[in-house]
Fold:
Amino acid sequence: MKFPNRETLTRWFLTRNTPVFVQIAKYGASGAIGAAILVGTVLALSLSLFPALDSSLIDGEPVSDALRQRNLIINNIIAFPLANLVVYLLNAWLVFTPGRHSRGKEFAIFTLITALSHFTGILAGPFLIERFGITTIVAQLSLVTTSTLVNFLCRKFIVFAR
Structure:
């Protein structure tokens, strides 16, 4: 198979009518940007306003598991709206074809689906920390991974036209 030339790659990047592997790559890139915003915001909040990192990762007072669990939930709730908006805009611009619903309804369904998967993951984080003793970072990465898979399928078949 011949590698696509620069013009083809540019066209694929700027249009939604692309081979499925390109759509998945653009979805992955959009998700990576959203995940970076989400995780970066959670990390910044975890280091400042609402401490949620394992005591081994920070200097100073140890943070109890109960406080880590509560603060991780708070930090994710704060980080969610910004990450959701950025991913919606990228998905509508680069990945999927809008038009199945009005823009407002499309964004509402997009947000509902994203929120359901995200907040399910948020609730799972404290459970994983308490039950299995995993670190905050592993709990956060688990949330991002499961949310990505669920969201792609729902966005492709429920939210957007194609």
Remarks:
- Helices lie at 6-14, 20-47, 65-95, 103-132, 136-159.
- The chain has five helices and no strands.
- The chain has a mean pLDDT of 84.
- The two ends are 26 Å apart (CA to CA).
